[in-house]
Write a structure and sequence with these properties.
Number of domains of chain A: 3
CATH superfamily of the largest domain in chain A: MetI-like
Strand order of the largest sheet of chain A: 2-1-3-13-4
CATH class of the largest domain in chain B: Alpha Beta
Mean pLDDT of chain A: 84
Structural class of chain B: alpha/beta
CATH architecture of the largest domain in chain B: 3-Layer(aba) Sandwich
Largest sheet of chain A: 5 strands, mixed
Largest interface: A-B, 28 and 37 residues
Strand order of the largest sheet of chain B: 6-7-8-3-9-10
Structural class of chain A: alpha/beta
Distance between the termini of chain A: 34 Å
Strand content of chain B: 25-35%
Mean pLDDT of chain B: 91
Shape of chain B: elongated
Distance between the termini of chain B: 47 Å
Shape of chain A: globular
Low-confidence stretches of chain B: none
Low-confidence stretches of chain A: 38-44, 292-305
Order of helices and strands of chain B: EEEHEEHEHHHEHEHEEHHEHHEEHEE
Number of strands of chain B: 15
Strand content of chain A: 5-15%
Helix content of chain A: 55-70%
Radius of gyration of chain B: 26 Å
CATH superfamily of the largest domain in chain B: P-loop containing nucleotide triphosphate hydrolases
Oligomer: heterodimer
Radius of gyration of chain A: 28 Å
CATH class of the largest domain in chain A: Mainly Alpha
CATH architecture of the largest domain in chain A: Orthogonal Bundle
């Protein structure tokens, strides 16, 4: 027993090591490939001098933004590719999956500071205004008007000062009022945002901060509201406001007519333009590229750092990534929170799902036709629906009118799916016990109920448990989508950190390893249970407990 | 006492039990015999309600088992059942299999159940296997454990449904011995079995079942040695029967030859005997067809597997016609040569008054 455990542990560590080194090597390979491409690019005079050069190229946009509309208008030949976040866009660009991507100029500035591998064409693709959004309801309208009043009364130049502060380089200057100290005499407002959009909104030291956030905080101070920031996927923001899950949203949302049909915009709180981010190697000497005010020095040092990076050993690379992902700004605390959330969702869903699946199994067991029809319909519905859709429906429609924590909704959703899996497993497991076992028990005088619990279930368990542990592993993995309903689980934390560090792969590898560890833990626990449930592993003393042999 | 009245069981496609009414007395040891598919197992399973009867009523003493208000679980505690496929609880040790029901259902202490269990295990010769799991036992051992498990509940009635049918021939003996011991305890028993010799020696009463009914109910001496019914006789003597009815001169004789050949090969009748049976049928019918104006012939052949003897009987209509007296006929002398016995009888008043009997070996 001990030996087997030891073997498993060793095997697990070997696997982990292989995984880490494999991914690290692939990362290294990526750096070299992009370097090689750089050369090749120069040879072929593959330059983008202006926006029109990008027509016909592959352009990345973030899902949920309106940038794809601008691209289609200005560059009708371009091939659009959709990505979920900035970190993915960066990864795609450096991996040569796309030739350019669209972001706000302000955001593009940040990219330039982070990496000298990219730059942007200073020509605006489109200009736009940002504004917070409100629900198209009476309350929404009232709050919108109040927000407009707030903007009106701001002293001249306040927004510009804010912009200067948040768009500058010095992180220490970017102070944010403490929203927990707001006076909430008129209630607390829930603000929907997506924290992957520095400098407008991003996570620093475990808190969502940024230009939009400070304005929102100022507004709440003005109106006498408390503020609760709900961080979610960008796709989820509009429905969150429409259904009243959140009172308003500020997430660098540009004002476009189509959106204005479904939500209310306040007066703009920021005006800017979108630009195309491209690889530095594609920027010709004559290209008009954005440099930023203080960027030259940065870029030089960045380039130096980049050179150093290439010479640095694999180990140093990994160490630097580790530092960025976990140590800086105490980001490990975020991961800690994410792991906890994932664990809580998984554990509760396993517990409730098992109970739920068992209950419906018991109701259907004796062939009650109504229970069976209802169950079959329910299974068809839950199992056939993509998990994301189920969660969205639960969050925005079923629990739409109640202020309920996303974690609870996630637990409800995964309880439903896990319950159906448990139901299926029980059906198979119990079905594997022969009819003769029932008959023998009945013939001895056992009732239907006693027969099930005493004779059938103990024999079904060994059939059920191996697949059960597989279902738990599946569940842990599928919780990765709860970011859609504003839950910050492990994956979402990985995304948040990625959107700060622009490390394309390391956070992914890190969370993958954590998932593996969690799955191994689950497997181990269920393994212990199945040993306890295996009647043939009992000791003689256990069997003959309380009996003296005469 | 078990009283059964007009018991009937139908499934969508078949009716294994048509109409059974019988009284079983306390202490009766009854062998239920008969061809397969004639409702023997269904009768047993209806008695302890593993099958719900379609019609009819069953009483155990004064309690109507078939009454929906009766607590069938309590009744079953008094009615043990041994299955063809043993059905031991695979997740429990041998001793636990035996202890389980007395502890759970009769409220016995574990110690008490263990002591009884060990005693019963020793009587079936398996005291050493107490802590083994069923999958570590041979078929014969499993069945003996199953018998001990049934006995642990101290039932008034024991139903044994083909207890030795699933066993290797080498293991049949050990289980039969255990049942034989059981039969001496005075408990009421019903045993469905195909082992005739075993059935005959163990019981005091035999049900011969055929076609969903109890066709003959009597003592073993009666049923096995002097069966009253034709079907019983054929069954207990293990006779294989071929029947042919010739109703006109246009009968398909070639078809008849084929039928006889099929019958003989199916019952593994020796080639020589097969030839003789075919010869007898062909020649006798040929003679009769030419002698009778309006031929109606009923011919039967009964082959006994035990003695390897075929008894042929050929009955026909018309006035007194003894073809054995045609002593100058060459064919007849050949027939007399191959048969052990060739006789003629006249049965006045019957539809087929003329009867020929031929014994072939």
């Amino acid at each position: 027993m001990k030996n087997r455990l030891l073997k498993n542990v060793i095997l697990f560590f070997i696997l982990t090591a292989v995984l880490v080194s494999g991914l690290a090597v692939s990362k290294q390979a990526l750096i070299y490939t992009s370097a090689a491409q750089k050369k090749g690019g120069e040879d072929q005079n593959y330059y983008f001098h202006s926006l029109s050069d990008l027509n016909g190229k592959r352009i990345g946009v973030q899902t949920g933004t309106s940038f794809d509309v601008s691209v289609r208008e200005k560059l009708p030949e371009a091939k659009l590719e959709y990505f979920n976040g900035k970190a993915d866009l960066m990864a795609a660009l450096s991996g040569n999956k796309i030739d350019a991507f669209v972001v706000d100029e302000v955001v593009a500035e940040i990219f330039l500071r982070e990496s000298n591998q990219v730059t942007y064409l200073s020509e605006f693709l489109d200009s736009y205004d940002f504004a917070p959004i409100f629900a198209r309801t009476k309350e929404g309208e009232k709050l919108r008007d109040e927000f407009n009043d707030f903007l009106e009364q701001l002293p001249e130049g306040t927004l510009d000062q804010l912009a200067d502060k948040w768009f500058s380089e010095d992180e220490s200057e970017k102070t944010m009022p403490d929203i927990s100290e707001l006076n909430n005499e008129n209630g607390t407002l829930r603000l929907a945002t997506e924290s992957g959009y520095a400098p407008f909104e991003y996570v620093r030291n475990g808190k969502v901060v940024g230009y939009d956030m400070e304005i929102a905080a100022m507004f709440c101070e003005y109106g006498g509201y408390g503020l609760e920031i709900v961080d979610m996927n960008f796709d989820g923001i509009l429905p969150a406001v429409q259904t009243g899950k959140c009172d308003f949203a500020a997430a660098g949302i540009s004002i476009i007519p189509e959106r204005a049909e479904s939500v209310l915009f306040s007066e703009p709180n920021f005006s800017g333009g979108t630009v195309m981010v491209i690889r530095t190697e594609n920027a010709g000497e004559n290209s008009s590229v954005g440099t930023g005010d203080t960027d030259n020095a940065m870029t030089d040092s960045g380039a130096a750092a980049e050179e150093a990076k290439k010479d640095a050993s694999l180990w140093d690379n990994v160490r630097e990534s580790f530092d960025k992902t976990f140590i800086r700004e105490n980001r490990w605390r975020l991961f800690e929170k994410g792991i906890l959330t994932t664990l809580v969702i998984t554990l509760l869903s396993v517990l409730f799902g098992t109970a739920f699946g068992f209950c419906i199994f018991m109701m259907c067991r004796n062939g009650n036709p109504i229970a069976n029809i209802v169950t079959r319909f329910f299974m068809w519905l839950v199992q056939g629906m993509p998990m994301v859709v189920l969660l969205m429906i639960l969050y925005y429609i079923i629990f739409g009118s109640v202020a309920v924590n996303g974690v609870i909704v996630a637990v409800v959703g995964f309880t439903l799916t896990f319950g159906t899996s448990v139901f299926g497993l029980l059906k198979i497991g119990v079905g594997a016990v022969g009819i003769g076992q029932y008959e023998a028990a009945y013939a001895l005088g056992y009732s239907n109920r006693q027969t099930f619990y005493k004779i059938i279930l103990p024999q079904a368990m060994p059939h059920v448990l191996p697949s059960y542990s597989g279902e738990i592993v599946n569940l842990i993995k599928s919780t990765a989508i709860v970011g859609y309903i504003a839950v910050q689980d492990l994956t979402k934390i990985g995304d948040i950190v990625r959107s700060r560090t622009y490390e394309a792969f390391f956070p992914l590898i890190a969370i993958t390893i954590i998932y593996f560890l969690l799955e191994a833990l689950a497997g181990f626990l269920v393994g212990r249970i199945s040993i306890n449930f295996n009647p043939k592993r009992r000791k003689e003393s256990e069997i003959l407990k309380g009996i003296t042999h005469r | 006492m078990i009283r059964i009245e007009h018991l009937k069981k139908t499934y969508p496609n078949v009716t294994p039990l048509k109409d059974v009414s019988v009284e079983i007395h306390d202490g009766d040891v009854i062998s239920v015999i008969g061809p397969s598919g004639t409702g023997k197992s269904t009768l047993l399973r209806c008695i302890n309600q593993l099958e719900k009867p379609t019609e009819g009523r069953i009483w155990l003493d004064d309690l109507e088992i078939t009454d929906p208000k009766t607590d069938i679980n309590k009744v079953r505690q008094k009615m043990g059942m041994v299955f063809q496929s043993f059905n031991l609880f695979e997740h429990k040790t041998v001793i636990e299999n035996i202890m389980l029901a007395p502890v759970d259902l009769l409220g016995k202490s574990k110690q008490e159940a263990y002591d009884t269990g060990m005693r019963l295990l020793k009587t079936v010769g398996l005291g050493e296997k107490a802590l083994n799991y069923p999958d570590q036992l041979s078929g014969g051992q499993k069945q003996r454990v199953a018998i001990a498990r049934t006995l642990a509940m101290d039932p008034e009635v024991i139903l044994l449904d083909e207890p030795t049918s699933a066993l290797d021939p080498t293991m049949v003996g050990e289980v039969q011995a255990a049942i034989r011991d059981l039969a001496k305890t005075g408990k009421t028993m019903l045993i469905v079995t195909h082992e005739m010799h075993f059935a005959k020696t163990i019981c005091n009463r035999v049900f011969y079942m055929d076609d969903g009914m109890i066709y003959e109910d009597g003592s073993p001496e009666q049923v096995f040695d002097n069966p009253r019914g034709e079907k019983t006789r054929r069954f207990v003597r293990r006779l294989k029967v071929l029947e042919l009815n010739i109703k006109s001169a246009g009968y398909d004789f070639l078809g008849m030859v084929g039928d006889i050949a099929d019958y003989c090969s199916k019952n593994q009748i020796a080639p020589k005997l097969t030839n003789h049976i075919q010869l007898v049928f062909e020649e006798v019918t040929r003679i009769l067809m030419s002698a009778l104006k309006d031929p109606h012939i009923h011919a039967a052949c009964e082959y006994s597997e035990q003695t390897e003897v075929a008894e042929c009987s050929i009955c026909y209509n018309g006035s007194h016609l003894d073809i054995t007296s045609y002593d100058d006929d060459l064919v007849l002398s050949i027939l007399k040569g191959v048969t052990e016995n060739f006789s003629y009888t006249w049965n006045e008043g019957s539809d087929y008054p003329n009867q020929l009997k031929l014994t072939l070996r």
